[in-house]
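Lab channel / #folding
Pinned by the channel admin:
"Please post every new chain as: sequence first, then the C-alpha cells as a reply. Keep commentary short and put observations after the output so the thread stays searchable."

First post following the new format, from NK:
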Amino acid sequence: MVIFRRFVLLLIIAAVALAGCESMKAANPIMPIKEYERMIIGRLDADYVGTQSCLSACHFHDQRQKDFEASTMGAQLSKESGLPLVNCESCHGPGSLAIENLTPERVKIDAMEGKQTECNFKTFIDMKNLPPTAKSLICLKCHTANATFNLHDWNAGTHNINDVTCSDCHDIHAGPDLIVRPRKTFEMCFKCHADVEASFSLPSHHPVHEERVFCSDCHNPHGTVTDKQLSEPTIKATCTKCHAEKEGPFIYEHAENTETCTTCHSPHGSISNNLLTVQQPFLCLQCHSGHRTGASGDAVSRGNRWTRCTDCHSHIHGTDTPGVSGGTFVQ
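Reply from TO:
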C-alpha cells in the first residue's frame, strides 16, 4: 500500500512538472502576431516607394535627409552599398499611403499660401506610442546581424528589461554622427541614474565629471552576462583594467582582493579617501581584531582607533615580501 501511494505521488509530481514545462514552452504573445508585425513594420497594405519619392514632393525633412546621408547608417543604406534596404522607410515603414495625395499641383498651391507641404505621417509607424520593446526591435531588425555592435546580450540586459529603448540614448536625427561620444555618456546616463550622479560629487570619486573616466569604461550599456552590466567578467577584472598594479598574483594576497574590490571600495564615490566604504582603521577592524601598538594600555587603545593600518601595512592589496609573521602586507 505504501509503495502504491509513493507511486501515485511520483505520477502526480511528474504530471505537474510536465505541465509546467509545456506552459513555459508555449508562446504567450501580448497581442496577435499580425498586429505586432504591423506595429514594428508598418502598414501591411502600403508599398515601399523609396526616400527620393517622398522628398521630391516634400522638403520638410531635407536637413534630416542630408544628416542621414552623411552618417554611417546612411552610407550603408546608399545605392552604392548594394544593401537591400530602404532609407527612411526601413524604420518608419512603407510610405506609399503617406504620399498618395501629394501632387505637384498641391505643392504649388501650398507654396503660394505660404504653407509647408506635409505627407500623411499618420500612416507611418507610430513611434511615440510604441511599447519600448517594439521600438527597440525596429533597430534590432538590422543591428542584431551587424558585427560592429555588441548586442548579443541586449534582450537579457538591464536596460531592455527596464524598458529603456535604443532611441532613449541614440538620436539618429540629431546629425550625421550617430555614436554617443564618451565625453557625453555621463550626461546621458545621469538622466536616469541620479543616485550615481550624486556619488560622483563626493570628496573621493572617480573623475567622471572631470571627463577623465567615462561610464562606458566600466559598463556596457547594451547588456552583458555580468551584474551591473560590467564590461569584464568580474568586478576585479573591470577594476584592474586601470589599476593593474593591484591585480597580482602575489605570494601573500589579501583574501578579499581575490574576490571583489567592492568589499572595501565604493566604485563611484565615497566620503573617505581612496573610495573606501568606511574610514580607516574601522574598515579593517570589521574583519581584523585590534592588536598592540604601544607599551601602555592607553597607547594600545589609541593605536587601535587613531592609527591608519596602511601606515604600516602599505601593500594592503598583496605583497611578495614576507613580514614578521608571514605575509603581513608590509613594504
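NK: The beta strands are 204-205, 252-253, 269-270, 318-319.
TO: also worth noting, Residues 244-319 form one domain.
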